[in-house]
């Protein structure tokens, strides 16, 4: 089953004509000598190398770092389309935050039978330690990266919600800076909404959720260290916000208060933007062998003496086994109909869904419920018979670990590849910030699958990025 018989092209209509919002760019592309574009693309690669914008690779090439390929054909979104998309994203994040508050307190949605309790309470990402813990302004997911795709006739679908430590926003910002530097004339021709103020919005959102009584909160970014795949982003955001980048060894807890070691003596820490997974945050509460966390951090957090962004336990809301229930969360908590659609999803823990999945493996995408980064998944139409047979065994052995979805006809966008300009499939990760209010910069990270025919856009799987332009009305 493939959703949509053809691929929606972001730049060209079905008859080959250029869509109106791409008109100015198409004229520029036609009038610009290919040699100039080639020179600018080479300049971009050199500049990204110089700045150190890389992504660490795990798996077969463990220990290596890749430059994330950057494409100069932007993904352009008209103002009205963005307004509708942003409204749906904000609605979704409001409901997810309400769900997280509920399951760690009264569990009304479970009592009402809207979500099977075992799906939440037995989930590996549910943190019993968070039961009854109040967090500032009831915000659990301060930073959400929601993956959105366009399929079929151009309708947007939410592919997944990233609420733990969503990454990629630094590439969004650097892609914009690069386009402005290489092609300033394009920005003179178009009214493009800005994104470079994201670090300011992030800093404001983090400061707004400081513990009560703290007027000038000390915010830090907690990183696992230089070997993390997104370390560039950790350093980048700390520098852009003007806050300290710290590792677990730089912090300590005394009297349920978190302190940072400095050359002037201990300095109190009020808000931690943590890029460390739950399991490694506090060796006294979670993994005892963790060298990345801060002993006693959970105790300080429970005492309301420090704010963690995102909150401990947010992973249960972005788990792929919970994803099918997000539309129901919107109805239950907000009393509204979802503005954005989910992708139809088969939950393999259900006998009938498992039977359908096993009978249609060649046509479906099957994902591990805890998987990320494009790992641990089967893209049926692109898989060999041997790969499908091997995956069938894994699915039959542990069906509860998997969901299946139709193979989406992801929209494509013209992209510079070795053979010239050719269509490649894309997705979009907008970033939604929750503080005193829910705010977004107009746009997000557009990821592009550079391999011909590939539907996997993840950087870890060889994907690239594009600048995302939201046109102002």
TrEMBL record:
Record-linked InterPro entries: ATP-dep_Glu-Cys_Ligase-2, CP_ATPgrasp_2, UCP005522
Gene3D superfamilies tied to this protein: 3.30.1490.270, 3.40.50.11290
Leader sequence segment: none
Coiled coil: none
Residue span, Circularly permuted ATP-grasp type domain: 74-449
Protein's UniProt name: Circularly permuted type 2 ATP-grasp protein
Native source organism of the sequence: Nitrogeniibacter mangrovi
Organism lineage: Bacteria, Pseudomonadati, Pseudomonadota, Betaproteobacteria, Rhodocyclales
